[in-house]
Amino acid sequence: MASTRARGKTAPARKTKAARTKYVYFFGKGKAEGHRGLRDLLGGKGANLAEMTNAGLPVPPGFTISTDACRRFYEEGRRVSSAIDAEMVEQLRRLERATGAAFGSSTHPLLVSVRSGAKFSMPGMMDTILNLGLNDVTVETLKARTSNGRFACDSYRRFIQMFGNVVLDVPKDAFEHELEAVRAARGVATDPELDEAALRDVIARYKKVVRARSRRTFPQDPLEQLRLSRDAVFRSWQNPRAREYRRIYEIPDDIGTAVNVQLMVFGNTGDRSGTGVGFTRNPATGAREFYGEFLINAQGEDVVAGIRTPKQIAELETVMPKAYRRLRQITSRLERHYRDVQDFEFTIQDEELYMLQTRNGKRTGYAAVIIATDMVAERLVRPKDAVLMVEPEALSQLLAPIFDPKEWQRLPIATRGLPASPGAASGQVVFTADEAVEWTRQGKAVLLVRKETVPDDIHGMFVAQGILTATGGMTSHAAVVGRQMGKPSVVGAGALRIDERAKTVRAGDATLREGDWLSFDGLTGEVKTGRVATRPSEILQVTSGELKPEKSAIYQRFNQLLSWSDKVRTLGIRANADQPDQAAMAYRFGARGIGLCRTEHMFFGEGRIPIVQRMILADNEADRRAALAELLPMQREDFRGVFEAMHGSPVTIRTIDPPLHEFLPKREDLMVEIARMEATGQSGRALEAKKTLLARVEELHEFNPMLGHRGVRLGISYPEITEMQARAIMEAACQVVKAGGRAVPEIMIPLVGDVRELRDQKAVVVRVAEAVMKEYKVKVKYLVGTMIEVPRGALTADEIAKEADFFSFGTNDLTQLVYGFSRDDIGKFLGAYQDKRILDRDPFASLDVTGVGQLVEIGTVKGRSAKPKLKVGVCGEHGGDPSSIAFFARVGLDYVSCSPFRVPVARLAAAQAALKQRALD
Ligand code: ADP
Ligand code: MG
Ligand code: MG
User: Most CB atoms within 10 A, among 237, 475, 671, 914?
Assistant: First the structure.
């Protein structure tokens, strides 16, 4: 077990020499050997089945084979040891005694389901097998016991189908094909219309399919059926789609899945039976309403598979009032018990309700915020629990764009579907997941349009702007996965006519081809043809002042949650912003400070580049100073704007960092232009100027600019640049202070690896700062510090701290230099590294805690050993990444700084880090 990531903590080893490890856990008759605390061992499904059993809820009895057994399965070359198998058989006998039924019995046959269930739910990743235990003999017993031959045969044909697919790898189509043939022969449209004789025909055909495709006869011995199914579940842990899902959701590969074996209850015995799924609150909007779907006379996956269109759960009240009331009562109780929205599965057999699953429901970011704040208002949870209930990433969903209502209303509605996951999506239509990936790679925005999605589509769903399906309900695969990814999704748009082969889709009157534009609104379910511009989310409208906070319910909840977060977090949150408008936005999102203001971005501002170039081209100090003098007032204005936008919160401004050639034209372009001028007979000053420029560009050329003449090295070569920048910063600060405002400049020298570099530049800054303050006759509190971004800087942090008022870890460059990966070139091999599991994540997006993190820790500890009150922050991309933030909080940094749009995410992530740490201490 090599996993060290936070999500992947496996349970501590339970093995002791004396006690035999237990692998199989029974539940039934109001008592279970497991409970909800054992998710590592029993998986989410198994743990909750145990918990519900203990709570006295109507759960069919059964047993859970633990994730330990799954790990052993892989350790032992993909086989279950005889000891574990014997333990399973022991528990099977116990189940037989508890139910009065027996495997293969010709009087009372035991029928079970075999269900996978890992610690983290992986919807649709591993298929469930129902009705196991049926064979040519027991199917007749089942018929006799229920006086329902149709039901018995329907159950048997489903079992062969599921077992054939999951265990024997027979493609689903092969069975579907036979079913269709029988439907056609009988002249019926749907499965419920098939009578017993028709189903016997289906069974015979299915057995033939199995024999032809798998080269074995369908196994008749129930115990053999069970063993094969169990092993198939274990094997499915490593199937490609499960692996892909784990990669996307960063679920460790080594935690394994449990197997649940459970007595069957039947939703397909007739019109007094049914099956369904639901939520205690609306998972798309968060509204406090009972929410779900069901089908009469159906079994298992029929509801989620999107084959038959299910009914709204409210209708259950009229059809089976007693079962409905019981369901309401049980699910409300479950919500109170788990203190979170429950996503449940149930089956009604002859009006008797059974609970088959419950778990904390997945929800959209929007719903997450509504639910968390509602539950505090209902006194179901405390504010700090609410803070832990919302994934930080969910908040970035709330900032996602919406359509411009005017533009949207101009277009007619082509069709409608179910609003499965909110957000505005506009893109070019593609019909397969692979195409979605390919087109996205080419820089196109795509909408993935499918009849229904399956787990194999996950990579395409991940990259698409939105997902649109023709069949399926609000709990279909597309809906569940779309919500979880925060991807706008509309499902079950039944009027869409998709021809996947011809690559066309009819929506209303229009026929669209691959590549045509389509748009939909995931909050209303409306679909329109054409491209529609999007506009900022409601929250953005409030933060930008277009909309009054009182007018936006979601903004108020968002704000409430974040203010609770601010009360518990220990990390400060700053933003990386270069311009006054960005700084203002960051302030409105709650940043209290700028962690990184990159001065060179200002050089690209309007009309500035020629002056910058003149400064670079100068071959003597006097000319250089003249150009710098022109830049000074411009920089001063920018800085003043940033100070004002921050209302007295500290502003860290970095002196020039990139190599100078970045401000000059490309060598090749210049050469082409000079050749063209010469060819067209131009001469004189313009041509000479180009030639001078080219000469300077060639002079500045470097083999490895990232390791070249940049950062502090520039300031050391050209102290007048540092001088000008220090002056612009201090003059701006003095002006703000003189005007009655507050400004707290923190001047930051980049790329320092040796204390003497910093000492050199600090002398320049201090000299200028003191002079400026004397000129302006005001005192401004200012700091001079450095970025720690080269490994030597971190390793000698104790020396550097003597000269620095603060450190800021530049984790982008630090990652680059610690791994030796160029940030701009990692794309070429990152994919291969991730496929081979050499890297789990992009180290530029999520901090490599083991390596780079060590330097952050060393730098912090050493720095503070020399200067205990040293202020330490981080300003790389990692400052906005929740798992990196958790690490920075652990190391004891003072703040993280991230892009303005990530500030809400960072505030929440920092609060969660603090709460989790408090729980550990
Ligand atoms: P998933 O993880 O894909 O939801 P489940 O193991 O929950 O798979 O099974 C899917 C469905 O199969 C359940 O929602 C339920 O309707 C049906 N099912 C599973 N076990 C049983 C059972 N013992 N009796 C009746 N139906 C069952
Ligand atoms: Mg499944
Ligand atoms: Mg389920």
Answer: 475
